[in-house]
Amino acid sequence: MLTITSQEMKDVLYALFKKYEFTESKANLLADVFTQNTLYGINSHGINRVPYFIETVKKGIVKIDKEAKKVEAFGNIERWDGNQGSGIINAVTCTNRAIALAKKGGMGLVALRNTNHWMRGGYYGWQAANENCIAILFTNTKPNMPAWGGKENRIGNNPFVVSIPRKEGHIVLDMALSQFSFGKINDYKLKGEQLPYLGGWDEDHNLSRNPEKILKTEKGLPVGYWKGSAFSIVLDMIATLLSAGNSTYKIGLSEYETAISQIYLCIYPEIFPDKALQQTLLNEIINYTHDTAPNKDGKMTYYPGERSLNAMKHNIKDGMNVNAEIWQKVLSILKEQ
Predict the structure, then answer these.
(1) CATH number of the domain that residue 144 is part of
(2) What are the residue numbers of the active site?
(3) What integer is the mean pLDDT of 242-248?
């Protein structure tokens, strides 16, 4: 592992994205998001994904000159088309639009189609919370899990985000509907470690903790088994219906995961005149959750987003730990002719 500062990473990534002809503003935003994701301890959807992102640019999957545009509006509900632009840039745009609609009318929803991978969904949850909005965000994916009871992949691990603004630290749930995101599984592979719990199926359709075997089959294990399977299906349905975009089935017909569908729902709790009570109620729940004996020595309970917040504070102070092979790969891409 290497230890580097967030500024060093952002400078390198900005130069990389400029090299691939993103505008100055887009290159700066992309560099900031990938760096922030790493700063919050989510290397799997930060620096580790940069080589993959560049490959999608090279192959024309991500259109560097395209971005999301509004195509239909129904009061505080809108449909947008991502035009296969950068998933990160489109996600920031649609989150901002949902925030604006929420601050105007209490709630705002943007349904986005034809976009690309948004990398770390939690980034947009923090984005909304920083604007004092509750957010419920989700995306469909290519088929990468079997529906419960089946052998072949038919459903996506459809990442799901809920964020709640709080003065002492926002609450941000960011979870894939597989027991481990595939980026996290790759993290364990890079470290040469087994997963701590069963994470997917191997080629013989046996549940496994071996990251290489799971990455080879791309058969993730749904969280909660049949419950996660059902949750995946309904999220796919909502994203597809509201955006009039592609379902997991349609996405799976392409060689690459692209033209996916997403939902950005924001709620502005400050429409109610009891801001102080809202914070008291949140802290009451958190304090009650924290106030319990750990099941193992040295362990404790956390609210969603607490460990990411702690990681960010630590990484600002001491620098970010980055896989040396990944960092050298990023630098080599930057130096390519």
Answers:
(1) 3.30.1370.60
(2) 45
(3) 98
Provide the residue count of the chain: 337
Q: Is residue 125 part of a domain?
A: yes
pLDDT band at 195 (very low <50, low <70, confident <90, very high): very high
Report, as an integer, the average pLDDT of 320-331: 96
Residues contacting 181, CB < 8 A, separation 6+: 44, 45, 157, 159
Query: In this predicted structure, what is the pLDDT of residue 114?
Result: 98
The yes-or-no verdict on residue 298 having pLDDT over 90 is no
Phi and psi, residue 184, nearest 5° = -70, -40
Q: Identify whether the C-beta of residue 171 lies closer than 8 Å to the C-beta of residue 192.
A: no
Judge contact between 265 and 107, C-beta under 8 A.
yes
Domain co-membership, 135 together with 242: yes
The predicted-structure confidence for 127-172, as pLDDT tens digits, reads as follows: 999 999 999 999 999 999 999 999 999 999 999 999 999 999 999 9
Query: How far is Cα 28 from Cα 48, in angstroms, rounded to an integer?
Result: 18
Q: Are residues 105 and 137 in contact, defined by beta-carbon separation less than 8 angstroms?
A: no
